[in-house]
Write a structure and sequence with these properties.
single chain, SGNH_hydro_sf, lipid degradation, 3-stranded parallel sheet, signal, GDSL, about 40% helix, mainly alpha, 3 strands
């Protein structure tokens, strides 16, 4: 696990500007909401699922105006943190990999996986049915971990995970859904 001091150094390095960095962690695992989603929501069914599948959601991303699944016109915070950790960008979306178990396993072992989903909250009821809530993101990670253990063994998987970076950003949707709820608050 990355310590608070290491995280402060990473954030400080990010503020200092681009540099050539060595890889500080073997992988990065991302959990949260739209601030970190790299495309999971584009794979969810339903008409009310928030999606980032238009060219504007990537117009400033390297490679031109193509949708990236990010709720951003280019890189977002997970990408910048990943780059400072020595990775190319935020790891790929879980749902883009899940239909191909070998691809999921290789990504999990080589760079990590993003489980983040726009609209997600800590509570399963937050924007229910239109995202992957945090509890389900954690279950997806548990199944990924089991696949990693089956492939490389428990000790190797545990070592890789203990040296990896886990990024969480979730909770703001819980607050906004609660604030928008009709009725008297606090009675």
């Amino acid at each position: 696990m990355v310590s608070i001091l290491q995280l402060c150094l990473i954030i400080g390095a990010a503020a200092a500007g681009p540099s050539k960095m060595v890889r500080l962690v073997p992988a990065m695992y991302v959990f949260g909401d739209s601030t970190l989603d790299v495309g999971n929501n584009n794979y969810l069914p339903g008409p009310n699922v928030p999606r980032a599948n238009t060219p504007l959601n990537g117009v400033d991303f390297p490679g031109g105006a193509r949708a990236t699944g990010r709720f951003s016109n280019g890189y977002h915070v997970a990408d910048f943190i990943a780059m400072r950790l020595g990775l190319k960008e935020s790891p790929p979306a879980y749902l883009s990999l899940a239909p191909r178990p070998t691809a999921l396993l290789l990504s999990a072992l080589a760079t990590g996986v993003s489980y983040a989903s726009a609209g997600a909250g800590i509570l399963d009821s937050t924007n229910a049915g239109n995202n992957i809530p945090l509890s389900k993101q954690v279950r997806y990670m548990e199944s990924t971990k089991a696949a990693m253990e089956a492939r490389v063994g428990k000790a190797a998987a545990r070592l890789l995970l203990s040296r990896s970076f886990f990024l969480f950003s979730v909770g703001s949707n819980d607050i906004s859904v609660f604030a928008a709820a009709p009725g008297d608050v606090g009675t």
